[in-house]
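Protein modeling request. Please complete all fields; requests missing the sequence field cannot be processed.
Requester role: graduate student
Desired output: 3D structure, token encoding
Chains: 1
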Amino acid sequence: MHQSEQNDNAEIYWYLMLHLEPQLIDKLLKAENEQRAKDGSRQPVFYLIPFLYLERATPPLGSSSDEADDNNSLRSILHNFVFIKSSKDEIDRLLYSEWNRSGRLHLHYCRASDGQPIRLTEKEMTPFIALFVEHRQRFSFRPYGQDTLAQRTVHIKRGLFKDYQAEVIRIIHTADGIKLTLGIPVFNNEFTLELHECADTDVDILGGQADKLFEPYFIEGMERELFSILRRTVFRRYTDETRSQDQKRLDSYSIFNYLKFDDTVKQTHFQTLMLLCATLRRDQEAKATLIRELRSLLRHPDTPLTDEEAFVTAVLFVATRKGPLRKAAKEYCQTHEVTSQALVQLMPLIKEIRTR
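Delivered output (356 residues):
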């Protein structure tokens, strides 16, 4: 063995290990430490078993809870993990101890794709100690696919995962601010981290401020959801469950009608989506206000001059069921090269809606 390999094996790291049963491995490692204390010749084994800190969460009777589901998913993922802090040489000796060999290797290394044992530095372990032992940060933690948003990379500036680089997976605007779902590299794999009420003090984003950069994703996400709900409503493709879920989604979007955007076109498009939301929610007061505001923005209500004006006209038809509005939007699409994907998606739906 080369000198560098010998030194590497003697260095202290947190190794990610696998076992068969949390309570059993905890019992065996405690017994190991007791024996070492009696012998007085070897250091105790430092270990963390995440599963033991995660009690099963049960949502209130008769309801569901995303938080409980996330917690129980995390319990399932981490059921057979244990972190052990020691040198590789010392852990190798532990693996060949009598209790481990006779138990058919209850304990073994978790290995990366190259076959090497996965190990973490003290800095990398700090978030997990704080999460499981000290409960210092609220977040979800589970495997995910590669469906990131335009591969937007952020640098986490504070909290348990300070200095980690992460990919943005999902952005949700709430009444309390932005919630980011980020993909971070953990255990040679990718897991998700949710940052609630995220601000510029939490993450660095290449290209600008969080609220400005994520506006397009917010509007596109709202647009996609509202069109889906409208489609189910128009074609009556819903169940009691989907109807209830749609209502909750519409209620969550309705709180954003106070948002203001710097760009006039973006503001108009957003107000138009809020009119669609109010219409689907059957919120007569909000609908009346938005109809009045949007009508005042149209220079020629009966003859739209741009894609955005045609989109506003089409949504005004959904809200009012007045035939001339549908006719104006339809004639615009027949005589112009439409580039607005929102308008392209909406036109087939308004053809199915009856006029008053």
